[in-house]
Write the structure tokens for this entry.
Amino acid sequence: MHALDHARYLALREGAHVLEADGTGDKVLRLRDGTMLKLFRRKRLITSAAWYPYARRFADNCEALAARGIPCPQVKAVYRIAEIARDAVHYDPLPGLTLRQLLDQPGEHPELRDQLGQFIATLHESGVYFRSAHLGNVVLTPEGKLGLIDVADLRMYRKPLRRSQRQRNFRHMLRYRQDREWLLGDRDNLFIEAYLASQQVCRRQDLASALA
């Protein structure tokens, strides 16, 4: 993690477009060159972020995902900006549209349900537990592959996820009404069938409680 003084930070963000902000300040910036700067603040005094900052986690998770062949942002640098008490990660965004953006376009997109089911199975089989899993964090790239963004809240395991972890992950994915209606709305259950066919741990009844 590199120190970034306030003057250099202001020069970096000059002309940037603010994509996300809250009452405490900027959260995500698109810089003039098209790269992204995501800022993190420590919300509590005693927290794991004190020794393992979220910006560092974001960068480490991107590296681990890339090693598994999963499309994700490419990190350029990780910073500590002491004057504004923020950590930041500077990265090239993953090109493409999120699935939530694609849902705003006309059509049912059944092929995406099938592809997403296979993709989630691949993540679980690769030991990827993405607690922020929702359609706004999954991107369809121009090459037609699915990838992940906003990956600070992600854990990597050496072995495939356990059944209980997969069930919890499905509950995370279904907590948004729009996502749930799209994922489970088709009569053929394409998303669930594609997931079950692409992994060896969960049975249909194992997902019943998560989908209820």
About this structure: The longest helix spans residues 110-125. DSSP finds eight helices and eleven strands in the chain.
